[in-house]
Batch of 4 targets.
Target 1
Amino acid sequence: MTIVLDRRSDLTLDALHLVSRAGETVCFSDRAVGVMTAARERFMHILDNDPDVTIYGVTSGYGQMAKVRLDPAGRREHARHAPIAPAASWGELVPERVKRAIIFARLANFVEGNAVISPGVAQAVAEMLDQTELPDVPARGQGGAGEILSLSHLFVDLCGSLELAEKDALSLVNGSPCGTALTGDTALTAHNRLHVAAEVLALAAEAFNAPLGHFDQALETQWNNAHDAWALRTIRTLMAGGANGPRRPYQAPVSFRILPRILGQAHRAASWARDIATESLAAVTDNPVLLEAGDDHPFGEFISTGGFHNAQGPMAMDAVTGTYANLCVLAERMCAKLLDGAVSLLPDNLIAGNEMADVRQGYLGCLAMAATGYEEEARLYAQATLLPGAESGGFGQNDVASPVFLAWTKQEKAGECLDMALATLAPIALRALKVTDRRVPPALEALAAATLDALPGLDNAEPNGPRIAALAEHLRARVYGDVIEDLA
């Protein structure tokens, strides 16, 4: 299915999901092409009829060269050059889904003519989504005032294949499509990862035989929080149909009792990222940008802006990163509590296993130690992503860098730690149910089957590490898949 863009409101998070993860393609409607053509004509009329007009990057140089005035011949020559110099970063690369998301977000400035890009160039950008492999874009070294270092990597080859006119190259590398795409990618990832985390943590709560009162429906109104209410409902749904026998006679440790509140916090953070991404996808972030025509400017007016700096995205991504670290803490604590019979009231020697007595049973006692490592690593990433404390590496005007790639990279790494911690907890929880002869709740049977796939019989015929890693990869396939998990 090709997504047809008619106006900015067509750039939605659902469309971003289809393009970035399901591989859908994009084209402009005939109306949008007409709008872009008319905007381009107004732009050229201004250039051809107002010799005194100042348009950054068109009648002047870029960056520290903005003070240099270009005559008509100079501006045409200036326009022909592809943005090679800013492609100065290197290192770890962003995945293909993120590059597709950036290209999709790039189209917001084009579809209603705001960037006055040549329609043929705009269509060539959309057609990049027909490709299965896109140019490499580093995730590191992105310390520019805007996003030109990453966007230059993405579009320099395209520029070399086209005849560029005034402002075309600038329209490709200015604005904040990276901040939009990275926030959108974070929102989509957080949505699916939250569903996976809820399943594993609910399995642990059932394995611990936690009192069901900890997740009672009455708490939804008492806590007065829609996100916590979602978490309470989700946990009850996932645990429904578990063991019918007597539950634990007194309250569970704090890690189990605050589970709905920490899951609720994660749900709030994911929702915030979704809101910011939704706003950003339909926003015009070009610099300079063409404003609507008015009495004083019958063909429109160009102004320079800071739209290329998405300040909301890093804050939303940091919030998601923090919830990943908190969920890692819960996963590690639950590992330890399930293995400790004095706390869990379960037969700890059977849950942990006893490799000396029965090698077939497998020893899981060291898994909590591994979970601690993932927890501590996630905590390292959960620090605020602030504006740079010193002047950016750019010259002259470029004195503040954009931190969007730093924020996204930290949430990616913290999310991987959470996936590892959850994969560590799942076999411990499943062992607890197995040795006490309790059934897995129906909603968690697929998770249990995947766990047994990775660790058949929950034994230790092979080292646990690689098998836990295989389970983590199964969970990550769900997190990054093209299916949106059923999460109300």
Target 2
Amino acid sequence: MPFAREIRRLLAASLAAFALIGIAAAYWAVSGASTLLLREDNPRVVEAQRRIERGRIFDRNGILLADSVAADGAFTRNYAHPASYSAVGYFSLRYGSSGTEAAFDAALSGEREIATISDYLRAHTLRPPQVGADIRLSLDAAVQEALVAAMGALPGAGLVMDATSGALLALASQPTFNPNTLDEDWARLAADAGEPFFHRALQGNYQLGGAAYLLLLAQAIDSGFDLSQQFAGASAAVDLGGGTTVACIQEAPSDQLTLPQAFIAGCPAPFLLYWQQNLAGTQAHIKAEFDFEQPLSLAGFPAPEALAAPASDAVDAGQLALRNALGQGALRTTPLQLMTVLSAIAADGSAAAPNILAAQRPPAAESWLAHAPPTGRARMFSPAVAEALRHQLSASWSALSGRAAPEAAIGATLYRSQAGDALQTWLLGFIRWHDGSRAIAFLLLQEARVGAAALITQSQPVFDALLALPG
């Protein structure tokens, strides 16, 4: 037959086409279906998410921070505590989630594990309502409110940690956003030069600045250095080259100061002289012992920002060494990491890992299931050095506030750090009950120059709220 070859070719092509169609149909019916169903622009997925009743978020005392409100068979998220916005974060069908909403999304959304055929049939055939678990955070709403009020309108960060357990009692970043109006405000917020979505307490990396004085003082105490030794020229400013100069934060009582006196006044010159005489050529005691190069992060929350290589501003090796010694060099830290160092001072030298989840309650359950915090503590100071540092911090607090320590010992120090034109004012403090039963660390960072008296006055309500905490 003259057309037999052409017919066979046509038949083979037809069979191949049918085979491809069969394979494609099988793929899209079995394994490929999920790739279509899970596309973010699939309206069925969006509609299904709208019908999820996310769990509620409470503070440690049961104060409601966030819940889901039903309307027309769907749920919208409602945030009830403005001071906690930056810690709780947001949940949006359009923009995703952040903060606590993102860190504990699996629990809050009631995400179900598909492990058996019955799990699959229940999820995809019976389609029961999806309800998330409630979670209780370690945050204390009263402390959170006091901390946010102390920060005011200035950009910055604040943290309060139970140094005994590592539980965060407050976590704040300014400026922030209103998650209740996120969809309407998104374009404006995303373009805001203040970066309200950037969580300064967790992501920001800042110069150590005067925190280096605290660490140098710790090294001096640990080495048995004579703390009564006075340094001449103690009130002089220190020129670090490249137009950077650091000076005393407070008016120096004399031109000859000991390290403890220089610590209270925030004077760099005595610490520089101490470093030159005892530690020149090394910064290992700062890098290795306190993990500033590998800062901690909260699981599920934003990680610290990546650090770019420091810009060269025509300083020589000697000036760079001086900058490193006084906390104005390449080494930086996050507020969360510095908080753990402070908590170690408050808690006899060892720091617990920071944590924020206190308990979960499954849907329809009445009882809370306590969440076990991370185990283990990082040793940063010996108990003797930690006790000596608490004594120095208490003396500093009394000098800054003009008050004697109350029933619980209080300590605080004020210092500054700067990188180029950026300037930060830090207040680090602690409260420790005399019987050692509890210790709390407190950090307040403001991205501006703030006077010592003003910052102490602003932060006093935070100390008052901490002293009022139940045992």
Target 3
Amino acid sequence: MSLAANKTRLTSVTQELFNRWRETQQYWRDQKAAEFDRLYMEELNASVNAAAGVIDQLDKIIAKIKKDCE
């Protein structure tokens, strides 16, 4: 599986998780829900965005290496 495919899969499953989280928030609205959102979901979002950026950089580096080796 290519890096681009892995990035797509990562962002897709993360988006699905966030969709489910929004559904859950309709029923779970107390202080613990807000804490969970702040501690875990916001951190997850930041981490996935950072990982996606790194995957893009790695993809460019690998493409350059392949080109240089031809």
Target 4
Amino acid sequence: MRSFNLQHLAAITDGQLIGNPDLTVLGVCTDTRSVTPGDLFCAIIGENTDPHDLVHEAFDRGAVAVLASRPIDGPCVVVSSDSDLDPVIVALGQLARVQRETMSDATVIGITGSSGKTSTKDVIGQVVSHFAPTQAPAGSPNNELGLPLTILQAPALTKYLVLEMGMRGLGHISYLCDIARPTIGVVTNVGKAHIGEVGSLDAIREAKAELVMHLPASGTAVLNYDDPYVRTMRELTPAQVVTFGFTSEADVFAHDLVIESDGTSSFTVVHRDNQARVSLPLIGKHSVSNALAAAAVGLSIGMPLDQIGQHLHTVTAVSKWRMEVHQVARDITLINDAYNANPDSMRAALLALQSMGHSRRTWAVLGAMRELGADSDSEHIALGQSTRDFGCDVVVAVGPDAKHIYEGARDAGVEKAVWLPDIASASDYIVSEVAPHDIILFKASRSIGLEKLVQLVEDRLGEDA
């Protein structure tokens, strides 16, 4: 982060300065436990905590000042806002916008989509990092707080800054684009995630299209040709368009795709008269789509296709709880894909499970999908029904909101389908029923906390080994 003195910080945020205007901040921090000397502590009020009451801890750890929404005892800049957002979050966005303006040599690559954003961001970051200094943060810092913090924490020599952009409604991605000013925009897909908040797939398309609409004419929109909602976004952007997909009509496409028994894949990536064979060490066909998006980005910044292919050989799953494969006792495989879920990503994960199953018994341990609105019950029933199509031998629906998954699986004829009310009972059932060589997928929306079940099952199976 570039340094700011408090006087400059107050001017950027239209805040009230209290204390020495010449104090210089060297970084930003939102958690008193993570403060380092020279930081500006940002007091963002949470549901159950008010960090304004904890500023003494920040000062004890070396913070030089506080960005606050009310005066505190110590040097600070007090900000206010007409937005629904916390005023400190708005101020951080203003600060990040100024920081972005100073990064004249940096190219921002923005990524959005209903699913696959984080995994695509991770693959793009790893591929592009071989070309020039690149910053692509692990995890999903994709909202009005996470994106500004990522910009502010980017190293000074960053050439490519890869930013995930999430949304909960119309205008959210535009807000992020106003801060980040992306030059390259990637749209992975349009699906039913957030449909309960936005209302329809057409509205979700409109929200996601805000990214490509904000690109400059000199920029590049990287669009998933296989998704008709995304493909038509080419009409909405002034930027040049590069498409990717599984059809030869896309600019960058996969040919001769083979899904291996361990869920990884090999394929030939083709662009015009050039092609490169890739062995991708990530799980699932959807990971191939993410790799094609990364190839399209690499080509758009001038990377040779053969070099891109070489780097795709070595990518890894950077962000946690996304198709993480754990081998445990008795040759049992656990797949932790518990970070988030929507109807499209659920089916992508089930397809990956099916490709890894072969002669092994497959389990789908599934929790509820959030933010589906009026379609929630029918989508959960349909998900349960689809587990039979994907050949799942055992379906375990976990939690009170997952009962419709069980009902759908049962009605579709899945021989072994159960509903269990909580993680403890699900753990007991899995540990008692699992057999050697079984493979178990865990997936649900983030708020369900299904990663706790994965850890509990892994620990208990380890004890029994």
